[in-house]
Design goal:
Blueprint: H1 13-19, H2 24-40, H3 58-80, H4 92-99, H5 106-126, H6 129-132, E1 135-138, E2 141-144, H7 145-173
Antiparallel strand pairs: 1-2
Length: 174
């Protein structure tokens, strides 16, 4: 399945480009396996680290990925169900600040991630080809349902790459 550029807002192209053209169910499963590998390297101490002082901790990045998947899953559900309201954007920095992910155990964050991912997969699998192509307006941009799901996958890939490239070396040093 190849997503066309008119199916999503320009800003989200960087996420769609990471996942585009591949079967979504396979991507979501592969992403889950990558995240499981990352979780296996974490403990209560190293999950609080970041690669720079002003950057989110490992836990906060994971929490952000979880929150974003929840939000995009809701958006996809709304568009698939013909909700004609304009769906708003959200400020990810405010969400991370107010979620207090650093107070949550890494085990709890892993559980949340797995539950949210399973919910996303079940929602995707419950929709028809016609529903994948339905269009709505999200954060001021036109989106198809399938593009919203591909943003979920690409967004996670983007952050997993950052976690592996920038965070894991910091964890390995300690």
């Amino acid at each position: 399945m190849h997503i066309q550029s008119e199916e999503f807002g320009e800003y989200y192209g960087r996420y769609v480009s990471l996942s585009n053209g591949k079967p979504l169910s396979e991507i979501l499963q592969k992403n889950r396996e990558s995240m499981e590998m990352l979780f296996s390297k974490l403990n209560s101490k190293n999950s609080m680290l970041s690669y720079e002082k002003a950057k989110w901790s490992f836990k906060e990045v994971i929490g952000h990925v979880i929150d974003t998947e929840r939000i995009f899953g809701y958006r996809a559900l709304c568009v698939a169900r013909d909700e004609n309201s304009l769906l708003p954007g959200y400020d990810h920095d405010i969400f991370v600040k107010n979620a207090h992910f650093n107070r949550q155990s890494i085990e709890h964050l892993q559980h949340q991630y797995m539950v949210v991912r399973q919910s996303t997969i079940v929602l995707w699998d419950s929709l028809s080809e016609n529903e994948y192509l339905k269009k709505g307006v999200v954060n001021g941009a036109p989106f198809t349902v399938r593009a919203l799901f591909y943003v979920v996958a690409g967004h996670e890939m983007h952050h997993a790459n950052i976690l592996m490239d920038k965070y894991l070396p910091v964890i390995s040093e300690r």
